[in-house]
Structure formats: structure tokens, C-alpha cells
Write a structure and sequence with these properties.
This protein has 215 residues and is of the alpha+beta class. The chain has helices spanning 45-76, 78-85, 95-105; strands spanning 2-6, 20-24, 89-94, 108-114, 120-126, 135-142, 152-153, 159-161, 167-169, 173-174, 181-184, 187-191, 212-213. The chain is 24% helix and 27% strand. The longest helix has 32 residues, at 45-76.
Length: 215
């Protein structure tokens, strides 16, 4: 509300007379337009104690149900799970670069690529001038010894030393099972999955699996 000072007329103005005032506008009290909801806390000490515990037990039960479901799924298909987790292929690199590297440094030895505990190593070799042909893979142990007889490569050569101290050429290493072979395209990939559905196709003249060439 605003008060305005209204001066009296000259005819009514007297010395010592008070100055008249006039009210302008109307003061109104405005009520709240919407009610703010209140959070209702638990009414009793028992509710305040039980509700958090019940929520925690519900979460634990849900977590246990999820864990049980995962365990049941793994228990039904353990072999399939191991196959999915195991590495099925290994990409070596550009075909021309790898062929040149083998020509200069000798076959390439890759540790721990095969086996349920990755304890079998692979040797990749290439011979000839055609980079799409002449690829071979071997296990890194002698063909006439157990896999526990590991070999180590003589640097910058095509020869290896076995667990008894013998010097072996790369062709004297153990051939892998059927299905484990190089797949050659723009890059060289080693297929690490043994083929258990077809007869062994190991080449009789080289003792290694045939190379697969991709376009």
C-alpha cells in the first residue's frame, strides 16, 4: 500500500493544520498456491530399524540369484565356455613383412598359443619366393619327443636346440594336429583350433598342415 501526500487548497490551508493523506491501492494477503508434500518418516522405532535391514536382505537375495544363474549356466556348458574363452586364431602380421622377416631372421617362435593352459608354443616358417605359398607351422618340440621337451631357437638361423642338447632343423619339429595351420591373405593368421571332425590332413612330405590362402 502507498501513501500519497495531498496538499490542501489555499482556501483551506491554515497555519499549523496537518497535511492530509490519501490511501492508494488495496493491500491483500495472498495465500500459498500449492501445498508442499512432506516426507513421512517411519512412525515407530521398529519401522526405522526394520526397513533398512529388509532392503539390504532383498539386495543380497537378488545378488545371490544372479550368481546362482551364472553358475548353473557354466555348469551345463563347461566345454563350450572353455572354447569361447580360448584363443582360436592368432594374427601374426602383414604377409610380405613376415615373409621378409623369416627370410632374414629364421622361423618365428610364438610362446604359449595352444593348450588349455597355453603351454604349447608355435613355430611359423616360410620358404620360397611366393609369399602366398610355402607357409608351415610346427609345435616347439621335437617330433620324436614329448611336448615337455621344449626347443630354443639358435638366433638368426633355421635351427633349434632341444632339451637333450640336440641341434634340429625346423622341419624336425612336431607337426600340429589337423586344423592348426596358417591362413594367408594380406595378413598371416594362424588358426589354432584343431579340427576334430575330419581325418588328419597332415601333408606326408612336409609333416605340416596345408596352408589356406584367402583372397
Amino acid at each position: 500500500m502507498t501513501l500519497l501526500r495531498v496538499p490542501p487548497s489555499n482556501s483551506n490551508r491554515r497555519r499549523g493544520s496537518p497535511v492530509a493523506t490519501r490511501r492508494v491501492g488495496v493491500a491483500r494477503k495472498v495465500g500459498q498456491t500449492a501445498e508442499v508434500p512432506r516426507r513421512t518418516p517411519p512412525r515407530s522405532p521398529l519401522q526405522r530399524a526394520v526397513l533398512p535391514v529388509a532392503g539390504g536382505l532383498g539386495f543380497i537375495a537378488f545378488l545371490g540369484l544372479v550368481t546362482w544363474g551364472i553358475a548353473a549356466l557354466v555348469g551345463r556348458h563347461p566345454q563350450q565356455l572353455n572354447e569361447n574363452l580360448a584363443r582360436s586364431t592368432f594374427e601374426v602380421g602383414n604377409t610380405a613383412n613376415i615373409a621378409s622377416l623369416i627370410a632374414d631372421e629364421g622361423p618365428l617362435l610364438f610362446q604359449g598359443l595352444v593348450g588349455s593352459s597355453a603351454d604349447r608354443s608355435i613355430v611359423l616358417d616360410h620358404t620360397g619366393n611366393d609369399i602366398r605359398q610355402g607357409w608351415h607351422v610346427y609345435f616347439a618340440h621335437p617330433a620324436d619327443r614329448q611336448p615337455t621337451c621344449k626347443v630354443s631357437q639358435i638366433e638368426h638361423t633355421r635351427q633349434f636346440t632341444d632339451c637333450t642338447g640336440r641341434t634340429l632343423d625346423v622341419e624336425q619339429l612336431a607337426p600340429p594336429p589337423a586344423g592348426v595351420n596358417p591362413v594367408v591373405g594380406d595378413v598371416v593368421i594362424i588358426d589354432l583350433t584343431p579340427d576334430t571332425t575330419t581325418p588328419d590332413t597332415t601333408s606326408p612330405d612336409t609333416g605340416t598342415n596345408p596352408v589356406r590362402v584367402t583372397s
